[in-house]
Specification:
It is built from nine helices and four strands. The protein is of the alpha+beta class.
Length: about 300
């Protein structure tokens, strides 16, 4: 079991190049990824990172923040662009003389012509070598993130186990009280029957059967055996889910919790036994806690 919240970081400092990848994740019903990169990095790098992460994480909102400080000396790139600028300047001067154009040449004209607004480092950041280096840092940051999610998931599993044990104790108390409660109802009803119908009254067979049928209906209405059996089944399923480690279980846990809530609500409505009402409240409280924590399970 893994949590959906976590934080990871990886860094590289080498030969004047400093790269930091920070990843964090929050709760989400599905998987969503957002990547923030510096302006001088090609946009498709972010797309490549976003496509890389689903193989590592299956659920949650994942945020990737990439920062780069590049102090490397790359004169050959600037020399190349300086030479190009000189060539374009000479070309413009030739056109002016040939067509007798009297106008000023601005830096922006040259920039537009040779597209100097593109960073001279674009070739570096677009290289396969740089992309492999970057994805390796992303992997390391995500690995740290997953480790954090796993640690928090272990804490959640411990919480769920304790909560299940509390629910089992309360459910056992309710189940053990059922035979005595039903027997007590029977005694009270028979006593009531004797009080309202004199023993010397000769009842019609049909009337007596009808009366007993009403008794039986009342007993069945108070019987919660089926609800307890279903609740135990849901509890076993919930216990199985929290022991799964290799796949997301958060959504499934949410569905099972809903079923447990439905059963305990039915038990609360049908079982009018004041002595075990505190146990019913305890179960409801534990289910609500589990529901809240299940939102954070991957």
């Amino acid at each position: 079991m893994k949590s959906m919240t976590g934080f990871g970081i990886s860094e590289l400092n080498k030969n004047g190049l400093s790269i930091k990848v920070i990843t964090k994740s929050l709760n989400d019903k599905y998987l969503s990824i957002k990547c923030k990169i510096p302006q001088n990095i090609p946009e498709y790098i972010a797309y490549k990172i976003e496509k890389h992460i689903p193989g590592l994480i299956r659920r949650g909102s994942v945020f990737v923040n990439l920062s780069i400080i590049d102090k490397r000396d790359i004169p050959h790139y600037y020399d190349k662009y300086n030479n190009d600028m000189n060539k374009y300047l000479e070309y413009i001067q030739e056109i002016r003389k040939k067509y007798d154009i009297n106008t000023y040449i601005t830096i922006s004209d040259i920039i537009q012509l040779q597209k100097l607004h593109d960073s001279p480092t674009d070739d570096i950041y677009s290289s396969n070598e740089f992309q492999e280096l970057l994805l390796d840092l992303v992997d390391k940051s995500i690995k740290n993130l997953i480790e954090e999610r796993q640690k928090e998931g272990d804490d959640l599993e411990e919480f769920f186990i304790k909560s299940i044990n509390k629910i089992k104790i309360s459910l056992s108390t309710i189940e053990l009280s059922l035979p005595e409660f039903i027997q007590d109802i029977k005694i009270k009803l028979m006593k009531f029957f004797d009080e309202i119908i004199p023993s010397n009254l000769n009842m019609q067979k049909h009337d007596k059967e009808k009366f007993l049928t009403e008794f039986s209906y009342f007993f069945e209405k108070s019987d919660i055996t089926e609800e307890i059996v279903r609740f135990k089944s849901h509890l076993r399923k919930f216990q199985e889910l929290i022991s799964i480690t290799d796949e997301p279980v958060g959504l499934s846990m949410g569905f099972v919790i809903q079923e447990m809530q439905r059963e305990i609500s039915t038990i609360s409505a049908k079982y009018n036994n004041i002595s075990v009402f505190p146990e019913i409240l305890k179960i409801k409280e534990e289910i609500e806690k589990c529901k809240e924590q299940a939102f954070n399970v991957e």
